[in-house]
Predict the 3D structure of the following.
Amino acid sequence: MIRKYQQRAEQDVSGFKSPADDYLEGRLNIVDRLVIDPECTFYFQMDSNSMKTYGLRSGDLLIIDRSMKAVKGAIVVAYVNGAFHCRSYETENGRPFLKGDTDRIETTDGEVLQIWGVVTAICRNTLPSQLRKGDYERVCTL
């Protein structure tokens, strides 16, 4: 779950400003960092370890941008044979295929490899199971 940061209106203060104001920094808005195009951004949760060598583990939250075009080496979510797959997009002799840790997904003639979106970032809950309680149980999960 990603919470949206609420923008606050800035107030102009008349009179003497605090000298400490020079050291104030803006708050980090994680959505601004992770989501470039909100209309084309979707979230999936990884449900296997088929991309472990690429740094993706089961349970990771994938941030996917559908407006991006896949290039060789990009991690993508593709729709193949009635199922979504998260794999590395590769090409060989001009033919695209998907590569995971132990498998390779190719389409035969007549089948279409539909790239659903490009994975732009991952979010992982690093808490040990003892601390995953209450609201913290849902950190980086859908």
Notes: The radius of gyration is 20 Å.
